[in-house]
Amino acid sequence: MSENAPLFSVLIANYNDGAYIQNAIQSIFQQTYTNWEIVIVDDCSTDNSESILKQYETYDTIRIYHNDINKGCGFTKKKLVELSKGDYFGFLDADDALDKNAIEHMVQYHIKEPRAGMIYSNLYICDKDLQIIKEGNTGGEKHFDSNSSDINKKNITHFVTFKRSFYNKTEGVNPLLKCAEDVDIYYKMEEVGSIIYFPECLYYYRQGTNNNISLGDNTDNAFYWEFYATVCACIRRGISIERNAFPLMTYYRQVMIAKGALTTKETFSYRLGHFLLSPFYHLMKILKKPFKH
Length: 293
Prior knowledge:
Elements: E1 8-14, H1 21-29, E2 36-42, H2 49-54, E3 62-66, H3 73-83, E4 88-91, E5 97-98, H4 102-112, E6 116-126, E7 132-135, E8 160-163, H5 164-167, H6 181-190, E9 194-206, H7 219-237, H8 241-244, H9 246-258, H10 268-287
Parallel strand pairs: 1-2, 1-4, 2-3, 6-9
Antiparallel strand pairs: 4-8, 5-9, 6-7, 6-8
């Protein structure tokens, strides 16, 4: 490998994944691309993560940090980016793993596609033992049209990688988000460059674990933050909240009703919509800045 090969940072936010994080780290050791670093931030795990991570404290290519208190995914992932040094970087969940060619392919593709601020691959959906069940959902090449009045919502799958030079043009990961921090940064990245799909499975996604730092089993909570991220994107772009955020709210309201959890007027999304959107409309009215339709 060339001495000028760019550094790639693998960023791992860990919370109670002591049972799996060694597999994640080992998958990086097995990479065909060798100029990488691993940055790990532990978000106050209560399992055996600390003893596992201590084994790697003397490795030159691994740096480990700990939050003083549990901060959640937004704060932790923003911290990871700030602590990393690579020209390119990507997030690896502590309970997942990378294909041995993942970093090499992504670095090559980033060099080939200078217009792309973010490049993502397909993934393998695996069982708890990381045995492949099936291939995940494929995506497609995606471009943000600055003249568009719509949010380009598309399924983006792992392995998601970033050019730091493009990431630095955005506000970065929102440290306040407890879920949907990925949706938020994807919206921001498509505002500064192209998002391109690499059509190979480079990521092993472990299905059925419950320690996800951003979600766990709380689908309703995930919606709250995704809806918030979508509204914020609408405001940044000066586009219609009704056209872009309301359909998301309506969808989740229908899901909740289908579950029999709530009646229409009592759904979380209904109440959240009134709570969140009223201040935004009021603010825009004060600023005399109408939404585009």
